[in-house]
Structures are given as C-alpha cells and as structure tokens.
Specification:
With about 400 residues, the protein is α/β, with parallel strands linked by helices. Helices cover about 30% and strands about 25% of the residues. The protein has two domains: about 190 residues, 3-Layer(bba) Sandwich (FAD/NAD(P)-binding domain); about 140 residues, D-Amino Acid Oxidase, Chain A, domain 2 (2-Layer Sandwich), CATH 3.30.9. Strands 1, 2, 8, 9, 10, 11, 17 and 18 form an eight-stranded mixed beta sheet that branches. Strands 5-6-4-13-14-15-12-16 form an eight-stranded mixed beta sheet. It has a two-stranded antiparallel sheet with strand order 3-7. Strand 1, helix 3 and strand 2 form a beta-alpha-beta unit. The structure holds glycine.
C-alpha cells in the first residue's frame, strides 16, 4: 500500500522532523522534493501508540497526533488481558482475536520493556472468576463447560480453594473458576513505555487535535497522498492516515460504526499483596472486577452505560462498584479511595474492532476495540503494519474488516 518514495509535504512538520531526527528524505527517497510523513496516526492511546511504535521500527516516518497521549480510554482502563474470562457465548471471533493477541503479549512486553527501559507491571497469574450466590455459580458452571468446548483452560474451584488463592475473599464466596492463561498489565505504564520507544524509533509526537482528514490529491504521477488538518489550521501530509481515535473516530470518518460506552472505574490503595491476582465476580448477576498492581493499587471496575459522552462520575456508579466489590472482598472498605474516573469504550455493533482500510484512499482504521484495547494492541499493530507495508495481516483479523457492516 505504501511506497515511501512517493510522499509529499506541504508543512513545516517535515523540516521539524528532520531537525529532530536527522532524516534526509531527499537522500533516502531520492524524490527531489520535500516529503510529508509516511504515516500519520490520529490518537495516542494504547492502540495508536502500539501501531506507531511498530511502524516506526519498520523504518517508516510516523507522526502521532494527540493533545494528551494516553489520556483517553487507555488512562482509565484496568489493563486486563483476559480473553478467557471475558468470553461470551456469541463472540467466538472476538475470543480468537483475543487469544491471538494474548499470545503476542509476552514478546511485545519484552521488547517494549527492553526498548523503553521501564517495567510494565505485566503479570500472568490468571483470573479468578468468583461466584457469590448459587445462581452465579450455576452460570459459571455453564460458562466453564462452554469454555472447555472451545479448548480453553479453566479449573472449577470450591469456595475454600478460591480463598486459598486469595485469603481476602469473602467467606460467603461460593466457588469460582481459575483461568490460568489470563494476564494483566498497567496501561499507564504501557503508554509511557510506548511513547519513549516510539520517539527512540524516530517517531514524532504532534500535541494537537485533528479536526478533519484532508482529502487525497493527485500528485500527477498516479499517487494520491492524504493527510490531516490540525486545530491550529495546519495540514500535515502523509501517504497513509491511521484513525485510532477510539470513540471519537466517527467525527473523522463519518459513518464509522463506533459509539462511546461509558465506564466508571475506581482506584484504591492498600498494602502490597492484598490481592495477588485479578478477581472477577458475579454478584447477584452483576459483573465486577478487582485488578491489583505491584504497588498496592487496586482498580475496581466498571459500569457499562449507554449514555453517550456523559463524563460525570455518579454517586450511584461509585456506590454500585464499591457495593459489589465489597461483597467479594469485604476488606476493601479499609483501603484508601484514590481515584474515580470515567472512560468511553469505543463500542461497535458486534463488539469486534475495526482494523483495515476504511473507505478513502490511504485511510486505515484501528479503532472500535471496546473492552479490549490493551489486550488487542499487539495484534492490531501487527495487522496495521502489514496493511501499510503490503504484508499479510494475521488471518484472525479478517473478522475486523471495517467495511463488514455495509455488505
Ligand atoms: N475490559 C473491562 C472493561 O471494559 O470494563
């Protein structure tokens, strides 16, 4: 898709990029003219930055446009890499995609830690899925049977066995499932590491907001470059534009079927080791999760609300989260409440992301990751790099064609 010898520039971003990174496009591409970027990525969340890092490492010139990288859904996200315990009956393609991305996480993490020099707080101790009442346990038993038909590794535990894993669990916990293959990571650390590694790989961060895609134009040699218009009025040219703007993506590509799914989430701080693995629970039918970090922080999530871009933290949301989390782990009421926050999951009609060419020439989507942006970042980045460089995207990503709803 991308021919780096055929790029155009109309802005001084090119000159700034050269000054920062010492790239001489005329020499590299021998075009005899100043060039724009090979790729501009709109959105510096975990997905946009993963794409950016992997693309820059391939030697392409890449800019990410975001006024506050890592400040959207990623900032609020719990960071569960949990395709097994987040599986639902009707979403097998999403499960396959999640498992494929989970398998990429260990090497993604190792390279990212190595290149950034910082630890991600990645942990692979599995998820403990807890049932509080008899109905909840019956549901988990059915789920376990379904998961086994899919070849997933899940173990049925009694209440006593659950408490042996996690002594802080309520004595009333009835039983649970252990999904040993699930992992989790600290998304805020992932974003910091991605930013460092992206810039080390020669990438450019433009702390601005994109107001519109700038239409492709014919350079006279059959090539049509495109680009983006910034809030400052400047146009940044690029051969390819990747839209990774989460819930805001439809404002850039009208008709893209992405909507905000509000989630309220809490952060608590307690002694290290208060919980040692991810605990999910069904409390009288309503799902809750607690995700511990190495430093004693515990993320408690999350509401699921179809309220558009309603950014309010509500008393009811906080109450319900604490109520359900306390049923599972009574001791949490002793912990410090350090943060309440709202994020907007970019939901799609079938809960699968949109990854691939999105209508106009040179425009790719990498958005709509709903509940699983952190999990799906490695496979999304791999697929987008393949689309950009004419390689083969992983087969499992075929289910994410952005055009699938118009067929
Ligand atoms: N993946 C967890 C959530 O979206 O709440």
């Amino acid at each position: 898709m991308l021919d780096p010898r055929r790029v155009h520039a109309e802005t001084d971003h090119e000159a700034r990029h050269e000054a920062a990174h010492g790239t001489d496009y005329d020499a590299v591409y021998d075009t005899g003219r100043k060039a724009g970027y090979d790729v501009v990525i709109i959105g510096g969340g975990v997905v946009g930055l993963s794409v950016a890092w992997r693309t820059a490492r391939r030697g392409l010139s890449v800019a990410v446009v975001d006024p506050a990288p890592g400040g959207g859904a990623t900032h609020v996200s719990a960071g569960m890499l949990a395709p097994v315990s987040e599986v639902t009956y009707t979403e097998e393609p999403l499960l396959r995609l999640g498992l494929a991305s989970l398998a990429r996480w260990p090497s993604f993490r190792a390279e990212l830690e190595d290149e950034s020099g910082s630890a991600l707080d990645y942990r692979a101790d599995g998820t403990l899925d807890i049932a509080y009442g008899a109905d909840d346990m019956a549901y988990l038993d059915e789920l376990a049977a379904f998961e086994k038909t899919l070849g997933l590794r899940v173990e049925r535990l009694t209440g006593r066995e659950c408490r042996a894993f996690e002594p802080m669990l309520s004595p009333s916990v009835r039983g649970g499932l252990l999904a040993r293959d699930d992992a989790w990571v600290n998304p805020r650390r992932v974003v910091r590491a991605l930013l460092t590694s992206f810039e080390k790989a020669g990438g450019t961060l433009l702390p601005d907001r994109v107001t519109a895609l700038s239409a492709g134009r014919d350079g006279g040699d059959g090539d049509r470059s495109s680009g983006v218009r910034l809030a400052s009025g400047e146009v940044v040219r690029a051969t390819n534009v990747v839209v990774a703007a989460g819930s805001w993506s439809p404002s850039l590509v009208p008709g893209l079927p992405v909507r905000p799914v509000k989630g309220q989430i809490l952060r608590l701080r307690g002694p290290e080791g208060f919980l040692t693995r991810c605990v999910r629970g069904l409390v009288h039918g309503s799902p809750a999760y607690l995700v511990p970090r190495g430093d004693g922080e515990i993320t408690v999530g999350a509401t699921v609300e179809e309220l558009g871009f309603d950014g309010r933290v509500t008393a009811g949301g906080v109450y319900e989260l604490l109520r359900d989390a306390r049923e599972l782990v009574p001791g949490i009421t002793e912990l410090e409440l350090t943060e309440t926050a709202v994020g907007f999951r970019p939901g799609t009609p079938d809960n699968l992301p949109l990854i691939g060419p999105a209508g106009s020439h040179g425009v790719l989507a990498a958005t709509g990751h709903h509940r699983a942006g952190v999990l799906l970042a490695p496979i999304t980045a791999e697929a987008v790099v393949a689309f950009l460089t004419g390689g083969e995207a992983p087969d499992v990503v075929k289910s994410c064609d952005p055009g699938r709803f118009s067929h």
